[in-house]
Amino acid sequence: MSFRKMRRYKQELSASECALILKNEPRGVLSVIGDEGYPYGVPMDHWYDEESGHIYFHGAKAGHKIDAIKRCDKASYCVYDSGYRNEGEWALNIKSVVVFGRIKPVEDEDLKVKICTELCRKFTDDEEYIRHELLHSGGAVMCLELVPEHISGKLVNES
Fold it and tell me: How far apart (Å, rounded) are the C-alpha atoms in residues 111 and 22?
C-alpha cells in the first residue's frame, strides 16, 4: 500500500514527535468504514505502546464500531494536542497525528489486563480503583489493537 506524501511537507512532524503525541495525549477519533460505506468516527481513549508501536483501545463488545471492524479492518485514528499560541498572536498552533492501519480484537487475556491497566493509569494513579475496575468490569470489555501501516503528523497554525 502506498500512502500519500504530505503536501505541506514543511509542517511535517518527525516520527519521534508523532510518537510523543500518541504517548502523551489521552484521546483521539477512531474512524472506520461504517454502515452503507459511510465513515464512522468516534472519540476514543487510547494507550500507545512505545515498544510495539501499536495503539490500543477498550470499549463495549457490541455496537456500530465493532460491526464495522468485522466487515473491514481498515481504520484511521487522529490525535491532536491542546496547542499553543506564540507571544502576541491570536492563532493557535496545533500538532496532530493521523494513523492508518488495521484494527482487530485482542484475544490474549494478559494483554487485555495490561491495556485496561495502562488506559486507567492515563487518568488516575489510584491503584485500588484500577484493581476494582478490572475485577468488576474487565469481563465486559473488548480491547482493540490498531497496527499502524502509516503515521504522519503536522503542525498547523489556525491563522
Answer: 19
In order of their start, the domains of the chain are 9-157 (2.30.110.10)
At a CB cut-off of 8 Å and minimum separation 6, what does 54 contact?
Answer: 48, 145, 146, 147, 148
Enter the pTM of the model: 0.91
Asked if residues 70 and 58 have their Cβ atoms less than 8 Å apart, the reply is: no
List, in order, residues 6 or more apart from 49 with CB less than 8 Å away.
55, 56, 118
Give yes or no for a contact between 15 and 21, defined as CB atoms under 8 angstroms apart. Answer: no
Distances (CA, A) of 7 to 25, 91, 113, 140, 150: 25, 21, 40, 43, 15
Which strand (E) or helix (H) includes residue 128?
Answer: helix 127-137
Tens digits of residue pLDDT in 36-55: 999 999 999 999 999 999 99
